[in-house]
Structure to design on (573 residues):
């Protein structure tokens, strides 16, 4: 795997990637009658993650660009791992990302009867047979990459015997594993997927939609190809690991002679640094309570990213930037964070919050008085409006914005030094109050009444502007600071023989209580996103934020590692 700089792609009708190039060409040659019909086919066995977003944006995006359609299809052929909880969450995630499948919601399980009929057809054509070898024996007969397989002794059963057995499989006469239905293709094929792959297996299991109607279930390759054909899909876009399955996909469609034959096209799946993407591993994190749930803001799931404060626009922008390629790569998670910042920079109101409060008393500001300051929500966007911020004798500033003995490069507050308070005036530190342990617990300051508006008539300059809140008016809040869930760039790389959970970041969550927020946030609604000035972007927690019990998640810091790395790459190149 290589780390590569993704190429930007515009999303218009000219071909910006190899898949769109295929679609453009197919339309020119009139293949599929010029139609474009894609599908997004999740298996409802987990919540969708940012990798799925790449597939969703691609499939729905191509359909939209070429005047086509995109179906949502639940690939629910595996009864033991699937659940309606996942079906609901998938619908919600696709909608949240901004896509609409209208009335085109399908389930592979709705096709079970048809898929069964097609299987009988294959038997009648001599293209499928019931095999009674055990799973272990089938494995032994399969051969290896360098050795051809050997035919099963059951391979030449008569059509009648096959039909009889297959029907009895359906009726439930046999236990799990007694028989399978296999395609009769070629046990010597260099492609292992063509060595008489299994089409149906017996599984006495309850299905979340079909209940106990079936005890045989079709295999993915078989069901997927035929579902695509039944929905008249034109371009069946999937990830690279299915490249070797394409001959089987085509074999199934040719053998059944479906009226249309979709083209399977493979692209590289998204891998992100510091992130695991496999649903199996994400489920493990949930089940073992490494995280609080699928929607934990540290999860790469769409519900997790949403709760963290990511916007659908930012995720779509990210998908657009990474583009689509045919080679596996590892994308820097800093690029995703960069896209989030770019989007939130445009839309998030600026407010003031103090995470580690240090009390400041303005000695020459009268007790009991309040001055309302006008503070724009976004100084670069007048349309964002403004709010009033109260200034009082007692304030809070950020503890780290003061140092009693400042080193050379520290330009913030220190004894005898003057700074500007955002939207307010100049204040000067004239004293320090300490507790018995010698800890600074309060600053004594004076303010200059000539400096309301942020500058001094005598031209006096200050080096720093601090954020602050009125102590009397401040709201109490819990703020959750999230960091990467893994300390290793590629936690899924098990080269060292390690388990991905060995690379979990023990400091991925820091909970701060007693944070102080400006009073305009009193009515913050779950899901609302803000820039806390100088601190980052924050989002009122969807699950836990309530009036009177405010909880904010840090979405992303302000510092943009991605932009910085690009700038230094540019200056070097
Ligand atoms: P996982 O490996 O995470 O369990 P999956 O491929 O089994 O994922 P599906 O529900 O089958 O998950 O995926 C639905 C669609 O999303 C498929 O077309 C699949 O190719 C695509 N997809 C899944 N993961 C990624 C990814 N990381 N990048 C791009 N597309 C993906
Ligand atoms: Mg899958």
């Amino acid at each position: 795997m290589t780390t590569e700089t993704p190429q930007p792609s515009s999303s218009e009708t000219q071909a910006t990637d190899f898949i769109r190039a295929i679609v453009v060409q197919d339309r020119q040659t009139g293949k599929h009658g010029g139609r474009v019909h894609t599908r997004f086919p999740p298996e409802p066995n987990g919540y969708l993650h940012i990798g799925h977003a790449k597939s969703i944006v691609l499939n729905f995006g191509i359909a939209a660009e070429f005047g086509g359609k995109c179906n949502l299809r639940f690939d629910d052929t595996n009864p033991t791992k699937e659940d309606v909880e996942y079906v609901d969450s998938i619908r919600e995630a696709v909608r949240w990302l901004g896509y609409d499948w209208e009335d085109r919601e399908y389930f592979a399980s709705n096709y079970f009867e048809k898929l069964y009929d097609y299987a009988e057809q294959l038997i009648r054509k001599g293209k499928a047979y019931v095999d009674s070898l055990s799973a272990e024996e089938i494995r032994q007969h399969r051969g290896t990459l360098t050795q051809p397989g050997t035919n099963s002794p059951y391979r030449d059963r008569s059509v009648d015997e096959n039909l009889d057995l297959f029907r009895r499989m359906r009726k439930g006469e046999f236990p799990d594993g007694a028989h399978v239905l296999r395609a009769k293709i070629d046990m010597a094929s260099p492609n292992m997927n063509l060595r008489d792959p299994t089409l149906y297996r017996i599984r006495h299991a309850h299905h979340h939609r079909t209940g106990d109607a079936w005890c045989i279930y079709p295999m993915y390759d078989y069901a997927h190809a035929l579902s695509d054909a039944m929905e008249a899909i034109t371009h069946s876009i999937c990830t690279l690991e299915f490249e070797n399955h394409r001959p089987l996909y085509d074999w199934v469609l040719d053998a059944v002679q479906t009226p249309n034959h979709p083209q399977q096209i493979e692209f590289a799946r998204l891998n992100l640094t510091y992130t695991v993407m496999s649903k199996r591993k994400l489920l493990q994190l949930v089940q073992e309570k490494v995280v609080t749930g699928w929607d934990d803001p540290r999860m790469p799931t769409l519900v997790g990213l949403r709760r963290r404060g990511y916007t659908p626009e930012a995720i779509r922008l990210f998908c657009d930037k990474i583009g689509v390629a045919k080679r596996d790569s590892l994308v820097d998670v800093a690029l995703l964070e960069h896209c989030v910042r770019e989007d939130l920079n445009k839309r998030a109101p600026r407010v003031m919050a103090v995470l580690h409060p240090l009390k400041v008393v303005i000695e020459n500001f009268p007790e009991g008085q309040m001055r309302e300051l006008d503070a724009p929500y976004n100084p670069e966007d007048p349309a964002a409006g403004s709010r009033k911020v109260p200034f009082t004798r007692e304030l809070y500033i950020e503890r780290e914005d003061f140092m009693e003995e400042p080193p050379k490069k520290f330009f913030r507050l220190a004894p005898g030094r003057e700074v500007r308070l955002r939207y307010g005036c100049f204040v000067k530190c004239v004293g320090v109050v300490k507790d018995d342990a010698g800890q600074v617990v309060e600053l004594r300051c004076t303010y200059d009444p000539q400096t309301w508006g942020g500058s001094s008539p005598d031209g006096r300059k200050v080096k720093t502007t601090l954020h602050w809140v009125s102590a009397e008016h401040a709201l109490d809040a819990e703020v959750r600071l999230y960091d990467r869930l893994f300390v290793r760039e590629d936690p899924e790389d098990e080269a060292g023989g390690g388990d991905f959970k060995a690379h979990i970041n023990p400091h991925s969550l820091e909970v701060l209580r007693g944070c102080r927020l400006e009073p305009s946030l009193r009515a913050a609604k779950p899901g609302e996103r803000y820039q806390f000035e100088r601190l980052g972007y924050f989002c009122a927690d969807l699950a836990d934020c309530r009036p009177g019990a405010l909880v904010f998640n840090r979405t992303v810091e302000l510092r943009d590692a991605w932009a910085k790395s690009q700038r230094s790459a540019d200056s070097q190149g």
Remarks:
- Residues 50-65 form the longest helix (16 residues).
- Residues 41-43, 51-52, 54-55, 238-239, 269-270, 277-279 surround adenosine-5'-triphosphate (ligand 1) (CB under 6 Å).
- The chain has three domains: 19-267, 279-349+477-572, 353-467.
- The first strand starts at residue 2 and ends at 3.
